[in-house]
Amino acid sequence: MRVRGFSMIELMVALAILAMILSLAVPRYFNNLDSSKESVLKEDLFIMRDAIDKFFADTGKYPDKLDDLVTKRYLRKIPVDPFTLSPNSWVVVAPENTTLGAVYDVHTSAPNKARDGTWYKDW
Hints:
The chain is mainly alpha-helical. It has helices spanning 8-59, 67-71; strands spanning 91-93, 105-107. The chain has a domain at 38-122. Helix content is 46%, strand content 5%. The protein has a two-stranded antiparallel sheet with strand order 1-2.
C-alpha cells in the first residue's frame, strides 16, 4: 500500500513560486493604491475650489467656513481627505482682503510627498 501526499521538495517549490509571485504583485498594489489616493485628492481639491469660485461669483464674497458650501448647497458634503481620512483636516487659506470672507483656497494637511516629489500640501 502506497501513501499519497506531497514530498517536502514539492511543497518547497510551490511555496517558492508563490513567494516570487507575491514579491512582484505586492509593490504594484501599494503603488496603485498611492496613485489612486493622489487622483482622489486632485479631484477633491478641484471640486472644492470650483465650489468656492462659484460661491464668490454668486455672492461677491468667499465663504466664512467650508461648511457654508454645504449649507448653501454648493457641495453635498465636505469630501474626506484621502490621506488623513477626515473631512475636518483641510487647511483653509484666507484671501488677502479678509473683508471678502475666510475661505479663498483649500489644501490638504497630509505631510507626505507625492510620487512626483512635490508636497501634497502645496497642491
